[in-house]
Amino acid sequence: MEPSNPHPAAKKLGRILRSSGGHWVGDGFPVQTLFAYSDMGAALSPFLLLDYAGPAEFPPTHERLGVGEHPHRGFETVTIVYDGEVEHRDSSGGGGRIGPGDVQWMTAASGVVHEEFHGRDFAQRGGPFEMVQLWVNLPARDKMSPPRYQSIADSQIPVVALPDGQGSVRVIAGEYAGVKGPALTFTPIHLWDLKLTGGQPFELVVPEGYSTALVVLKGSVRLQGADTAIQAAEVGVFERTGNVLRIERADKVTALLLCGEPIDEPIVGSGPFVMNTAEEIRQAMSDYQSGKMGHLA
Questions:
Q1: What is the pLDDT of residues 254-265, one digit of tens each?
Q2: I want to staple 229 with a disulfide (CB 3.0 to 4.6 A). Which of 69, 74, 220, 282 is the partner?
């Protein structure tokens, strides 16, 4: 629930994360990892990792571009498409195609095997491709829950106009200004897709004590009192104290606001598995190799 705000206090910008370069995931996703749990897991809990794929231009093809069968356990993947199409299929029976504005929220939990490819229609016509994939941690009590798949269409995501023509907020998870998003989450999370257009100062109210990050995909955002603007493909990480983001200027910006209640538990990860202990990682590897996470037909 979005908090009441009787005594607003600004969250201070702690640091800005910048990608050190790009890499390919499979042959369909040219990504920059904007943050990862190896160094930011505790500071950004419950958020583990964010890959920004694109923007890129793909020529028409009849080949299947993407990444084939691979496992996950212990967390959730959230895929948001801005351009292009993504097709997903997993061993729990989840799957579908998502396009611009759509969101796929896959809870791997106890374990799934899945694949991710460009949509067939998109591949044949080619064009611009841009998406984000966020990894969200699960608390220990939920890491071995049954897998779950949420396909959230653009039309299901409410849009709230910001005051004075400053832009809009698409509420994917949590709530903004009393408007709730459709995504189901295990721990309290606000995930807002922002379009900021006005270029004038305004405020975003966020919960006290939550991990908060502003992921700027296009444009730049300057916070009141900050010496440096957050530029495209950068992440502003805020201190947990405070309950207001005071934005001095943000013109023609596309950004994601990540805000979540921290999970104060150990984070132990290896490749596609994120658990709490090294023994749980070894068990995940064994379970995958023995087929306990299933297979794709």
A1: 999 999 999 999
A2: 220
